[in-house]
Design a protein that fits this description.
With about 200 residues, this protein is mainly α. It contains 7 helices and 4 strands, in the order βααβαββαααα. It has helices spanning about 10-35, 40-70, 85-115, 130-135, 140-175, 185-195, 200, and strands spanning about 1-5, 70-75, 120, 125-130. The mean pLDDT is about 90.
Length: about 200
């Protein structure tokens, strides 16, 4: 396994992190609009196709991110971080990986088992296949209902995890005063964050 700078993620890990984060935010916005917005049927169909396209893209990115993680050791947690917080951070990252894999897969399964049988065309260019055994089920409605609930509740769980993750990162910089936030920021953003006063500087 390759090693990284002791307090800095690799450029590839940083790029993948922010691409996935942007994709997830787009998916949440589209999902909430489709579920709760008052929009025309034609617009909803376009958003549905875009949601599927971005979801499959995020699935590909998270698979690359996992492979990169297995071959490149991330920076160690700060020595000052209590073991219970280190364990909580590790559990949070694992939950992120499981949800970021599970949500696109359940979405793909949901589309595959949908009685409507709408094809998926990624960004209007590439036809994406349904999952064969789900697409061939005779009684699709009950399976679709279960998958729909799993996907919806999983999305809310991911949203809650994002809020927790952002709050923890901000706490590390502004309250604790370590470099946990800065080591995942791109260069310019990291320098701007570093220039802000931490809790330690303000004391």
């Amino acid at each position: 396994m390759a090693t990284t700078n002791s307090n800095r993620y690799t450029s590839v890990a940083i790029i993948l992190h922010w691409l996935i984060a942007a994709g997830v935010l787009v998916l949440i916005a589209i999902g909430l609009t489709m579920a709760h917005g008052t929009i025309a049927a034609a617009t909803k169909f376009k958003l549905f196709q875009l949601h599927k396209s971005v979801g499959i893209t995020v699935l590909g990115l998270i698979l690359v991110r996992i492979m990169w993680r297995f071959t490149h050791r991330p920076p160690a947690m700060p020595d000052t971080m209590p073991s219970i917080e280190q364990n909580a951070a590790a559990a949070t990252h694992l939950a992120f990986y499981l949800l970021l894999l599970g949500l696109p897969l359940t979405g793909w399964a949901l589309v595959s088992v949908s009685p409507i049988n709408i094809p998926t065309i990624l960004f209007g260019l590439i036809r994406w296949p349904h999952i064969g055994f789900l697409a061939s089920l005779h009684n699709k409605a009950p399976v679709a209902a279960v998958l729909d609930n799993i996907h919806a509740y999983g999305a809310w769980a991911l949203f809650a995890l994002i809020v927790l993750h952002v709050a923890a990162a901000l706490r590390h910089h502004f309250v604790i005063g370590d470099d946990v936030l800065g080591r995942m920021l791109p260069g310019a953003g990291r320098r701007q964050i570093a220039a802000l006063p931490s809790q330690e500087d303000r004391q």
